[in-house]
Amino acid sequence: MTRTLEFDILVAGGGTAGCAAAIAAARRGHRVLLVEESNALGGTSTTGGVCEWFASLDGLGNIFDRMKADLGKFGALHGRFFNHEYLKAVWQALAEEDNVQILFHSSLSGATVEHGCVRRVSMLSCSRPLQVAARYFLDCTGEGDLAFLAGAAYHQGHPETGRTLHMTLTCMLYDTGKPVRPHLPPGLKPIERPEDLPGLNAYIALPDGRVYLNMTKVVGHDPTDPFSLSDAEREARRQLLRVVHYLQRTQYPTHSIASTGASIGIREGRRIVGNYILTEADILDGAPCDFPDGVAVATAQIDFHSLTSPGNRGWRQRVEPYPIPLRSLIACGFCNLLMAGKCISGDQVAQSSYRMTPTCCAMGQAAGTAAALAVERGVADIRTVDVAELRKVLIADGMELDPRRHQAFGPGETPDPSGAK
Question: Mean pLDDT over residues 110-122, rounded?
Fold first, then answer.
């Protein structure tokens, strides 16, 4: 028998965007359900093992500020790097503090839509079928799973080839205190030079003694196809063994693997078509566009890795901070379906910039606040929410919505779009 639950707001996806969205809505007194497939909150930044933020870290709202402060209390924050195991506990405590109902081990399986409004979503949790009815639904799944199940239009990958940005499995090394014996299973070719690394040459020694690796690169796979994604996970682990074998021989002769991401990091899945598609021209041509309905600001560079080539080839270019319009967070043709995070409405180049975790947090807070205000004001169609009131609330909640008051984040530049091929 299918169990049916009712909430004011359902947030699908417990990554950074989903956590911020759920907290922003719940702290205003609404009944919020946060649905997550794994066993912890934080998404890519926790179970994904990506323990760095690649954007400017100020003016993103009081949820991001509180999260940083709580990480600092554990001694787990080091500039833009952090201990992702503590972050799991921080996000959980913040959600519980505001009475967010958290449902782990749950996967979406369907959506019921009537006249452009999502009425219910179905899911499986511990092999048990559930249905959840709500007034507003927020897709923070990263790959746009909820919007896809609801029948929303979407784009994916390069407009000509369909290729998405590559996937990466991260790793942590620890110092064993004595020389280790490098080993490579049969069939895996040793890496002899930095130029032969499959991905970035990015190994960072952290203050807590661990070494963070962001060095694998799986291209040509579809993160929304189950067999392709499974193959990507397998290829990433083969690459990781080669990378660690190389580092043990060249840089870290006493280090061994401490942990890897519980799942591969996905830079790009579906991009849901919203009421506005944020484009490369919006963020790059001269001064970025100014949107009257801007509800978050992105600061990160274009970070467009080559879609076909291994190694560090790609297109990185600094952009001036730019606003993200509320219209890009609303699924086109729907009255109560919003997105936050990397699956919002934009083209592939723009997405390579706004997909960064700190920006996703700001988007989540904006989307959750918008849904909360709609419930409070009895608004049946999110497209008619009072944008001026929403912006006023966001500013009061610590979000700097003037892009000119943000700092651009562009640590490495190769400003040639041809490198993205």
Answer: 98
pLDDT of residue 84: 96
Q: Which CATH superfamily is domain 3-158+268-420 in?
A: FAD/NAD(P)-binding domain (3.50.50.60)
Q: Quick one: average pLDDT of 247-254?
A: 98
SS3 for the chain, per residue? Answer: CCEEEECCEEEECCEHHHHHHHHHHHCCCCCEEEECCCCCCEHHHCCCCCCECCCCCCCECHHHHHHHHHHHHCCCEECCEECHHHHHHHHHHHHHHCCCEEECCEEEEEEEEECCEEEEEEEEECCEEEEEECCEEEECCCCCHHHHHCCCCEEECCCCCCCCCCEECCEEEEECCCCCCCCCCCCCCCCCCHHHCCCCCCEEECCCCCEEECCCCECCCCCCCHHHHHHHHHHHHHHHHHHHHHHHHHCCCCEEEEEECCCCEECCCEEECECCCECHHHHHCCCCCCCCCEEEEECECEEEECCCCCCCCEEEECCCCEEEEHHHHEECCCCCEEECCCCCCECHHHHHHHCCHHHHHHHHHHHHHHHHHHHHCCCCCHHHCCHHHHHHHHHHCCECCCHHHCCCECCCCECCHHHHC
The boundaries of every CATH 3.50.50.60 domain in the chain are 3-158+268-420
- pTM metric for this prediction: 0.97
pLDDT in tens, 62-76: 999 999 999 999 999
pLDDT at 329: 99
Per-residue pLDDT averaged across 342-357, rounded?
98
Q: How does pLDDT run across 157-190, given as a tens digit for each residue? A: 999 999 999 999 999 999 999 999 999 999 999 9
